[in-house]
């Protein structure tokens, strides 16, 4: 798209950079391998020589992680900006001349001001650093397409002549492939807040439809039909109205909690409470799904084998951060279930690592080795299982041989579809013999009614039974 621009990606992690320079990239993303292989060594380079890359650059993107704080003030909600600060100090230390420094990471409002203060406190006579905000709006699984065909590019900067000059320079880069009308320029603070607000709105949509899914299950409505009906309203639209076991990933929960903390810090408790409900509903949906599994399996899963298909937070990625699969696994492990987990892209080591975290393993990592088996084959995971649980919407799960799976499972054989990927197969699955439970729909035809062999006598609180009950 712009072969005349040289891009150098730097990181302190030598093994990660080594992987980027190899045939096996450290992450899975559709189309990314082809892009890297076509550009690497020409105008795309990966290096651990951070100082040289900064010195040679005209434009520096800060793209480090901004995780939720796990300590001190704002623990569990505020963004931890220690990596942003470290980058700012490194940049000002080794830079000379004119450079544009751009926030690419998701940051709280006025983070650019903190970067500017670090620059100003350590400036040199020959140094001129301009700070811009240019948040990314890529979605994992479609990141390459989102980069090539973005809905919009947002650039925020100072409302000064030098700030506007920096904005124009960054616009010129994007104009190589993005139409000018899709490039939005604004002040820095609006740009920073827009990223948080965008993720909060998307998470809100998911929690909203998930709340309706609970109502659908209680009333006999179908959340897919409800979503279609409301999504055809042009004021609402049909995006992000897919009910599921809840949202995951590195962004949504982190950014909503960051927004909640920001509102609390600015003495806006009602606004903070509103956005906190998005997180609360997501947690409720996960617990509710796990409870439904336990309830359908005759109110106990202790010692029962359950096949869990899908561990990444969504399809077409190997990313497991805040995946609903982790929490579904936790709730089932809490009840003593034996989990056999399969995912086409997530490594065994990653699954074990995620489930061994203190908040998931209840400070008892030994139980993971006792209760969790990671398999490389979905059919192996289903062998002698009481239930099959779909937690990720991988396309391959639509193509499995369910007759073969049914023969391998204990009876009654349950399918819990947490992503609605098997809707089109319900009649066939029912004919095979599966008992189907799915998000946002009460599939009553698949329930096995409890039919005792003897009629239990009615026992009134006011009248004694006419015949002594036999137990």
UniProtKB/TrEMBL annotation:
Involved in the biosynthesis of glycosaminoglycans; hyaluronan, chondroitin sulfate, and heparan sulfate. Pathway: Nucleotide-sugar biosynthesis; UDP-alpha-D-glucuronate biosynthesis; UDP-alpha-D-glucuronate from UDP-alpha-D-glucose: step 1/1. Pfam families: UDPG_MGDP_dh, UDPG_MGDP_dh_C, UDPG_MGDP_dh_N. The keyword Oxidoreductase applies. GO terms for molecular function: NAD binding; UDP-glucose 6-dehydrogenase activity. It comes from Channa striata. Keywords: Allosteric enzyme, Carbohydrate metabolism, NAD, Oxidoreductase. Residues 307-424 form the UDP-glucose/GDP-mannose dehydrogenase C-terminal domain. The active site is at residue 251. NAD(+) binds at residues 11, 16, 64-68, 105-106, 140, 251-254, 321. This is UDP-glucose 6-dehydrogenase. GO terms for cellular component: nucleus. Homohexamer. Its EC number is 1.1.1.22. The keyword Disulfide bond does not apply. Belongs to the UDP-glucose/GDP-mannose dehydrogenase family. It catalyses: UDP-alpha-D-glucose + 2 NAD(+) + H2O = UDP-alpha-D-glucuronate + 2 NADH + 3 H(+). Substrate binds at residues 136-140, 195-199, 235, 242-248, 313-314, 419. GO terms for biological process: glycosaminoglycan biosynthetic process. Gene3D superfamilies: Cytochrome c1, transmembrane anchor, C-terminal, NAD(P)-binding Rossmann-like Domain. InterPro entries: 6-PGluconate_DH-like_C_sf, NAD(P)-bd_dom_sf, UDP-Glc/GDP-Man, UDP-Glc/GDP-Man_DH_C, UDP-Glc/GDP-Man_DH_C_sf, UDP-Glc/GDP-Man_DH_dimer, UDP-Glc/GDP-Man_DH_N, UDPglc_DH_euk. It comes from the Eukaryota.
């Amino acid at each position: 798209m712009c072969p005349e621009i040289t891009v150098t990606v730097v990181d302190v992690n030598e093994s990660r950079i080594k992987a980027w320079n190899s045939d096996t990239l450290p992450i899975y993303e559709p189309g990314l391998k082809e892009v890297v292989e076509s550009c690497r060594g020409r105008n795309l380079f990966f290096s651990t020589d951070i100082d040289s890359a900064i010195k040679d650059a005209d434009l520096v993107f800060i793209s480090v992680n901004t995780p939720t704080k796990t300590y001190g003030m704002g623990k569990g909600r505020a963004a931890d900006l220690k990596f942003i600060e470290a980058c700012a100090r490194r940049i000002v230390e080794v830079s000379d001349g004119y450079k544009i420094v751009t926030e690419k990471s998701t940051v709280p409002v006025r983070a650019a001001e903190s970067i500017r203060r670090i620059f100003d406190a350590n400036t040199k006579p020959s140094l001129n650093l301009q700070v811009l905000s240019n948040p990314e709006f890529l979605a994992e699984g479609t990141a390459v397409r989102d980069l090539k065909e973005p809905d919009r590019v947002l650039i925020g900067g100072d409302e000064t002549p030098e700030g506007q000059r920096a904005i124009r320079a960054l616009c010129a880069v994007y104009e190589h492939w993005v139409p000018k009308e899709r490039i939005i320029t604004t002040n820095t603070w609006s740009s920073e807040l827009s990223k948080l607000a965008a993720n909060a709105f998307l998470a809100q949509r998911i929690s909203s439809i998930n709340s309706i899914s609970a109502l659908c299950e209680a009333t006999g409505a179908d959340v897919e039909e409800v979503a279609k009906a409301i999504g055809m309203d042009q004021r609402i639209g049909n995006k992000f109205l897919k009910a599921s076991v809840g949202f995951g990933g590195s962004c949504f929960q982190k950014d909503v909690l960051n927004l909640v903390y920001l509102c609390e810090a600015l003495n806006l408790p009602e606004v903070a409470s509103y956005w906190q409900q998005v997180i609360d509903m997501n947690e409720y949906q996960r617990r509710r799904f796990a409870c439904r599994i336990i309830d359908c399996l005759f109110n106990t899963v202790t010692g029962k084998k359950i096949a869990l298909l899908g561990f990444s937070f969504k399809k077409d990625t190997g990313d497991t951060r805040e995946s609903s699969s982790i929490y579904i696994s936790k709730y089932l492990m809490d009840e003593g279930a034996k989990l056999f987990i399969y995912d086409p892209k997530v490594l065994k080591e990653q699954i074990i690592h995620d489930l061994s975290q203190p908040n998931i393993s209840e400070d008892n990592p030994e139980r993971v080795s006792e209760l969790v088996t990671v398999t490389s084959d979905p059919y192996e995971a289903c062998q002698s299982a009481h239930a099959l649980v779909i937690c990720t919407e991988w396309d391959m799960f639509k193509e499995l041989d369910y007759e073969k799976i049914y023969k391998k499972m204990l009876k009654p054989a349950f399918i819990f579809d947490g992503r609605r990927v098997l809707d089109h197969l319900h009649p066939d699955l029912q004919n095979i013999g599966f008992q189907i439970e799915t998000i946002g729909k009460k599939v009553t035809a698949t329930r096995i009614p409890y039919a005792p062999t003897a009629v239990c006598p009615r026992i009134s609180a006011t009248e004694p039974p006419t015949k002594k009950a036999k137990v």
